[in-house]
Backbone:
């Protein structure tokens, strides 16, 4: 589980595998040759990163996903053609490293296809020493940040909902994310009900 040196990921030969566990699952944003369900062991998916740019602001932080130590994570492995390696890495760094909250690393992932092979994939793991590392938040705290969060990429609740849909489309569940999505869904219903009541009163 060695760290990547900055030149090696762009100069290595062969195709590049990229492991997506959050928004990359439903909006990779780069060209790829193959998309395979995969499992990474040693880190788990968690809403453990305060978002100051994409889904929040420093004044009203949102919450986005990171790979945090321990456990395992199911996601998607994307195979990028060697000719696109430099371009894709540059894109991912611009997208994921806007505040350098992640460590760019290579991790072994197990592809969940007929071959069941293990490959080395580029992944973005949360830096626990970074000011945006939120640690283990309660569901209520997660909910509060997600409801308030809105940044350059839109509403934080949309990020959570889209990720849950992507997870469900792959045929598995992430218990805490699903619980949060249900809370957000309940909020939406409450808001719609309040809007209907307000409409009736204004007639």
Residues:
């Amino acid at each position: 589980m060695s760290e990547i040196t900055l030149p090696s990921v762009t100069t290595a030969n062969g195709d590049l595998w990229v492991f997506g566990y959050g928004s990359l699952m439903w909006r990779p944003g780069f060209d790829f040759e193959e998309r395979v369900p995969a499992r990474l062991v040693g880190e788990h998916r968690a809403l453990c990163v305060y978002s100051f740019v994409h889904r929040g602001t420093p004044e009203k932080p949102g919450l986005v996903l990171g790979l945090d130590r321990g456990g395992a994570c199911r996601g998607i492995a994307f195979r990028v053609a060697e000719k696109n390696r430099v371009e894709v890495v540059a894109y991912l760094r611009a997208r994921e490293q806007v505040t350098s909250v992640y460590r760019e690393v290579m991790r072994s992932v197990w592809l969940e296809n007929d071959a069941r092979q293990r490959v080395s994939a580029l992944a973005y793991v949360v830096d626990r020493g970074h000011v945006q590392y939120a640690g283990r938040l309660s569901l209520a705290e997660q909910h509060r940040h997600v409801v308030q969060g809105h940044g350059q990429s839109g509403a934080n609740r949309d990020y959570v909902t889209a990720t849950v849909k992507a997870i469900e489309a792959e045929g598995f569940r992430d218990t805490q994310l699903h619980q949060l999505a249900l809370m957000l869904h309940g909020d939406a219903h409450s808001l719609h009900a309040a809007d209907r009541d307000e409409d009736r009163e204004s007639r």
Summary: The helical segments are 6-11, 23-26, 85-96, 139-148, 156-169, 175-202. Residues 109 and 127 are 20 Å apart (CA to CA).
